[in-house]
Amino acid sequence: MAKYQILKFNRGCLRIGVLGCGHFGKQLVLSLLQLTDLTATCITVSTRRPEKLSDLSDLGIKCFYDNKRLAASVDVMFLCCLPSHLSAVSSQIHGCIAESCIVYSLVTAVPAARLKNLLAHSSIVRPHYFFHTKSAWPKLWRSGRTPVEALKVQEIIEVTSPFKKACK
């Protein structure tokens, strides 16, 4: 399968930051490496326990605990912290996010308007999930797939894209 091409900036690569690297954040990083043409040098992770990410560090990903530094230095920041940690995280990075940075929040329990206020930043993207009660999704998802396996299925990418129009 061909990897998705990521836009290149003048610096050579799109700088990706992942704030919070528990199970979900780690899967995101591995998916970015496996499914896109991003290299490990373009990805930075800030997490409370960077010593637990030796496998990512061994791949060349910069792992540390400095949310402010991460927020100020990336083009796209994936917010992967727990909702209960959002208040502390937002107070650390409030006003530090680069103006051109796009924040992709995976903290689904928090509305985008609240995130804009907490982060003092307006370029925020949040996935919006819409489920039909009578759908073919159980067949599509086939339980037992890993996130990386699921993201190799074009139909799954299409139905989960945050950029598609909402279903009517």
From TrEMBL:
Role this protein plays: Probable oxidoreductase.
Entry GO MF terms: pyrroline-5-carboxylate reductase activity
Species of the source: Chiloscyllium punctatum
Domain of life: Eukaryota
Similarity remark: Belongs to the pyrroline-5-carboxylate reductase family.
Keywords from the UniProt entry: Oxidoreductase
Domain Pyrroline-5-carboxylate reductase catalytic N-terminal stretches: 15-99
Pfam families, alphabetized: F420_oxidored
Membrane-spanning ranges: none
BP terms from Gene Ontology: L-proline biosynthetic process
Protein name, entry field: NADP-dependent oxidoreductase domain-containing protein 1
InterPro entries: NAD(P)-bd_dom_sf (IPR036291), P5C_Rdtase_cat_N (IPR028939)
